[in-house]
Amino acid sequence: MNPVPTASPASAAPLIYAGRIASIDTFRGITILAMIFVNDVAGVKHIPAWMKHVPSGVNGMTFVDVVFPAFLFIVGMSIPYAIQAREAKGEGARQIWQHILLRTLALLVLGVFMVNAEGGNYNKAAMLLDIRPWSILLYLFAAMIWNRYPKTPEKQQLYKGLQLAGIAGLVALFFLYRGGEAGDQMMRPHWWGILGLIGWAYLYSCAVYLGSGRSLVAVTGMVAVFLALHLGRRGPAMQLAAPLSWLKGQAGNASHAAVTLSGVALSLLIFNKDPKAEYRSILPQMLAMGLLLAVAGYFLQPLYGIEKNAATPSWSLFSAAICVGVFAFLYWLMDVKGKERWAVFLRPAGAEPLLTYFLPFIFYALLSWLGITVLGDYLGSGFVGVLRSIGVALLMLWAVKGLIRLGIRLHV
Fold first, then answer.
1. CA 400 to chain centre
2. What confidence score (pLDDT) does residue 7 get?
3. Can you say whether residue 202 is alpha, beta or left, with left for phi > 0 and alpha for psi between -120 and 50 degrees?
4. Which terminus of the chain, N or C, has less C-beta within 10 A?
5. For residue range 91-147, what is the model confidence (pLDDT) as tens digits?
6. pLDDT for position 368
7. What is the pTM of this model?
8. CA distance readout (Å), 212 to 87, 207, 227, 319
9. Which ranges of 271-381 would DSSP assign to H, the alpha helix?
10. C-alpha to C-alpha distances, 253 to 109, 113, 222, 227, 289, nearest whole angstrom
């Protein structure tokens, strides 16, 4: 592979290396596979503590606590490439920002719907439709809206109709929903959900990346700014006037944005470089970045400790440092040494992360609706339960591969 400069319509946009960065797709696939596994194994009893999230209020983290920030990190890594791809198609700043805002809105909407479908927020007796088919319909309508339909001219009216039907379906599900002890509450954002948190971090990171002129120095500096904002939110010193008081609540997403921006920064280290020709300078920079993040996390640990649920700065920094280390190894193995074949089975998840993320929720909602359980005393406990969770994760990879062949590919 040779570095091929491709001109962008935007004069400020850098030239990029035209070859495929295999390690980015693989890192995304590993993250999605791990997310499915840890979500599933969370219901397994009698397994080691290192296979569970560290409880709230406890200073520490396990590999499970790194999975969500790894997704934030890979979202950040993808931002420069995604924006460059849109510019290469001739899109200007207005169109790019329209896409960013619509994508953020989609993630927030999906996040809120998913939160209300889980965790006992719904009132079973008050709902006209059982929550299990309600949930299945949620993902069906989402697929109708955000599927990547073919560009076949004669079928565009059909595809538009499917999207409109999906939107109407989500509206109907919204009005069918009932929550609260009395069953008189409509759907509301108890919290933004995983996808919603990703949406806010994505929006802030895009704003920093584009607003800074795509500067590595500025992006890195904003990691510190967002962490400082998070610390300020937790302290009594942050007092804002009434019209700006909402910013204090939004500061809760600052640590997530810091992780995402760390991914943007790492991406900028490799963005316009040929891995095989320039790895001797790239890899030391990656390792230096990971070390800097880890050292910063160590020195900030006395401030609120390491805790995922509170999104403390040390948790964010240690998670980002781990992601840098893992990606540096994948980059060396796959893009420098060319060892790619081992990761073929991860390609479906890397190519369709949202679809892969949805499938387990559909799977378990369907099983529950049919009265089938896979969390009994035998399959839901110990080593056998862990094997079952691994099997579920691999089953989802196989299923998404089949759905891709059927033309189902989600993109918000």
1. 17
2. 36
3. alpha
4. N
5. 999 999 999 999 999 999 999 999 998 866 788 888 889 999 999 999 999 999 999
6. 87
7. 0.90
8. 17, 8, 18, 24
9. 275-300, 313-330, 347-351, 353-369
10. 17, 19, 14, 10, 22
Instruction: List beta partners, residue 180.
Output: none
Where does the pLDDT of residue 211 fall: very low under 50, low under 70, confident under 90, or very high at 90 and above? very high
CB 101 within 8 A of CB 196: no
Q: In this structure, what token pair is assigned to residue 412? A: 């918000």
In which region does residue 338 sit, left (phi positive, over 0), alpha (psi from -120 to 50) or beta (all else)? left
- Rounded Cα distance, 271 and 6, in Å: 12
pLDDT score of 84 more than 90 = yes
- State the first-to-last Cα distance of the chain, in angstroms, to the nearest integer: 31
Contact 315, 306 (CB under 8 A): yes
Facing residues of 381 across strands?
45
Paired tokens of 68: 């969500």
Distance CA 32, CA 146 (A): 19
CA dihedral 365, 371, 375, 379 (to 10 degrees): -120
DSSP state of 335: I
Burial class of residue 230 in the structure, from the number of CB atoms within 10 Å of its CB (0-12 exposed, 13-18 middle, 19+ buried): buried
In whole angstroms, give the CA distance from residue 27 to residue 19. 17
| Cα–Cα dist 122/113, whole Å | 11
What pLDDT is attached to residue 252?
66
Which residue's entry shows tokens 């931002």?
79
